[in-house]
Amino acid sequence: MKTPEEYKESLREMRPNIHKFGELITDVTTHPATKRCVEGHARIYEAAQNPDYENIVTTTSHLTGEKISRYLSLIESAEEMTANLRLKRTMFHLTGTCTGGRCVGWTSLNAMWATAHDMDKDLGTHYHERLKKWLTKAQAEDIAVAGAMTDPKGNRTLSPSQQEDPDMYLHVVEENADSIKVRGAKVMIAGVAAANEIFVLPGTGYKEADKNYAVAFTIPRDAEGLTIVEATHPSDRRELEEGFDSPPKTGITQAYLFFNDVTVPKERVFMCGEHRYSLNVVLNFIMAYRSAIGACVAGQGDLMLGAATLAARANGLTEKTFRERLTKIAINNETTFGMGIAAATLGKKHPSGVWICDPLLSNINKIYVAALPYEAKVITQDICGGIGETGCMPSSKDFYNEKYGKLVQKYLKAAAPAEERARIARLIEWLTIGAGVPGCLHGGGSPGGAKIVIWRQIDLDKFTSLARKLAGIKEQAPVAEK
Ligand SMILES: Cc1cc2nc3c(=O)[nH]c(=O)nc-3n(C[C@H](O)[C@H](O)[C@H](O)COP(=O)(O)OP(=O)(O)OC[C@H]3O[C@@H](n4cnc5c(N)ncnc54)[C@H](O)[C@@H]3O)c2cc1C
Fold first, then answer.
1. 187 C-alpha vs ligand 1 centroid, how far in Å?
2. Is 241 strand, coil or helix?
């Protein structure tokens, strides 16, 4: 398995194709715009080497029997899905941020494993064998794999082939015996700067007219024809700052990937035109992802619980003053974590061997994830006071300024020394409005989409029949369409 330094070296060896603020980033491991994202992911490699975390971060390959990163493993049971949740909560504790440049690719390969199996069985294709070969190599090389599903989508009411611009969804433009060519984009992709490869999946279910959009494959992050532009976000300014203004030296980035007729060799292609299976792979993905994201936000919530308590103490108050509010954060953390575990426990094994989480509970978890962490953030900012809310505090440069630094320090001091109070405040800013915030609302899909799945899962026939029985109604009432 790779050491953190070997991992960083593997990123340095790649062709530069990532841009930000008009600049081509030649080394993602040192450039201010990407180095924190790389550092967060490097902590996964570091944890894999640490006996305290080894069992959480690594597992045994079902393909080779070798020790591998859990991020490249097949999730074959409820216990392994629970281990996924534990890993995500732990990684948030160790990094203070999202490490989507490994976890989305992990979920993608598991989703594809089941769908490739279904396609081969029904259609006589050979996708599963290809995926197995790719995964064996990926495990041996211990690569970081980002996951890309989200298309730009253009007008949301139109299907891909109805769009004015056919490139609004990534699609196949050419196919020959050895390769395919793809054109379009995938947007808002987490941790691409920290990834060696990208696992590309279709963004939604497609009909016959849109079959060219039903495409899945893996690609090196530096593939020819792939141009990447990093998104900018409100905490960019902080991340560029040094000193205590940018508390954890980690972070996450989201990227726009532009595919300009990119060639993908067939051995990396796992779906090409089988439109009936595109929704299947998307659903496989969201069930695992929406179960596990409950652990990411719980991990982040744990940090808010710790930081809010420290802020109270720094102000001369005790945690008792804020007992009700701190308890609420703890309840929220365990609600999303527990719901994720429940979705895992009530899941079932797919014939391919992959564990599929319960569709109803994983989507309900998505609704909680889209709401509860925001409540925890409000409580954390409330307890800290204005210096944690929107960074209402001079910079660390001013804090140490020869002329007036002493004044800044004098008036920032409370029950705790000024620097301790300032550091807690910056951490709270990071956790509540900075890059420490996981994509609670839209990461893993919007709550609106989750509600559609939940509605479809509700067995109203069963419940009306139960209610009819208890009410003593014998006649079958007319059934309205759901
Ligand atoms: C922090 C973060 C990290 C992310 N990381 C990744 C990643 O690693 N990989 C990846 O593939 N994606 C990633 N995403 C993208 C994410 O999956 C999308 O943001 C999400 O699927 C929603 O898509 P959208 O942003 O285009 O919003 P839209 O789909 O436009 O949704 C906006 C709103 O409109 C509603 N809506 C949309 N279409 C319709 C319709 N036809 N009818 C009625 N209502 C509609 C939605 O429910 C929602 O309320 C990330 C996003 C975030 C914020």
1. 10
2. coil
Nearest CA to ligand 1 atom 37: 156
Rounded to the nearest angstrom, the gap between the alpha carbon of residue 429 and the centroid of all alpha carbons in its chain is 21
- Report how far residue 113's alpha carbon sits from residue 129's, in angstroms, rounded to the nearest whole number: 10
State the Cα–Cα distance between residues 342 and 362, nearest whole angstrom. 8
Show pLDDT as tens, one digit a residue, over the chain (482 residues): 999 999 999 999 999 999 999 999 999 999 999 999 999 999 999 999 999 999 999 999 999 999 999 999 999 999 999 999 999 999 999 999 999 999 999 999 999 999 999 999 999 999 999 999 999 999 999 999 999 999 999 999 999 999 999 999 999 999 999 999 999 999 999 999 999 999 999 999 999 999 999 999 999 999 999 999 999 887 677 777 778 888 888 999 999 999 999 999 999 999 999 999 999 999 999 999 999 999 999 999 999 999 999 999 999 999 999 999 999 999 999 999 999 999 999 999 999 999 999 999 999 999 999 999 999 999 999 999 999 988 799 999 999 999 999 999 999 999 999 999 999 999 999 999 876 666 789 989 999 999 999 999 999 999 999 999 999 998 776 666 66
Q: pTM of the predicted model, to two decimals?
A: 0.96
Rounded distance from Cα 242 to ligand 1 centre (Å): 33
In the sheet with 269-272, reading across from the earlier edge strand, the strands are 145-148, 197-200, 215-220, 269-272
Task: Based on the fold, state whether residues 79 and 200 are members of the same structural domain.
Answer: yes
Does 196 share its domain with 317?
Answer: no
Paired with 217 in beta bridges are: 200, 269
Angle at 119 between CA 117 and CA 125, to 5 degrees: 100
Distance between CA atoms of residues 448 and 343, nearest Å: 19
How far does residue 233's CA lie from ligand 1's centre (Å)?
17
345 and 78 Cβ atoms separated by less than 8 Å: yes
Specify the residue with its C-alpha closest to ligand 1, atom 33.
Answer: 446
Q: How far is the CA of 157 from the centre of ligand 1 (A)?
A: 14
CATH number assigned to the domain comprising residue 314 = 1.20.140.10
Work out which ligand 1 atom sits closest to the CA atom of 153: 26
Q: What is the CATH number of the domain that holds 78?
A: 2.40.110.10
Q: Domain containing 454: what range?
A: 281-460
Instruction: Please tell me the total count of domains within the chain.
Output: 2
Q: Whose CA is nearest to atom 4 of ligand 1?
A: 443
Q: CB within 6 Å of ligand 1 — which residues? A: 100, 104, 147-150, 153, 156-157, 188-190, 254, 439, 442-443, 445-446, 448-449
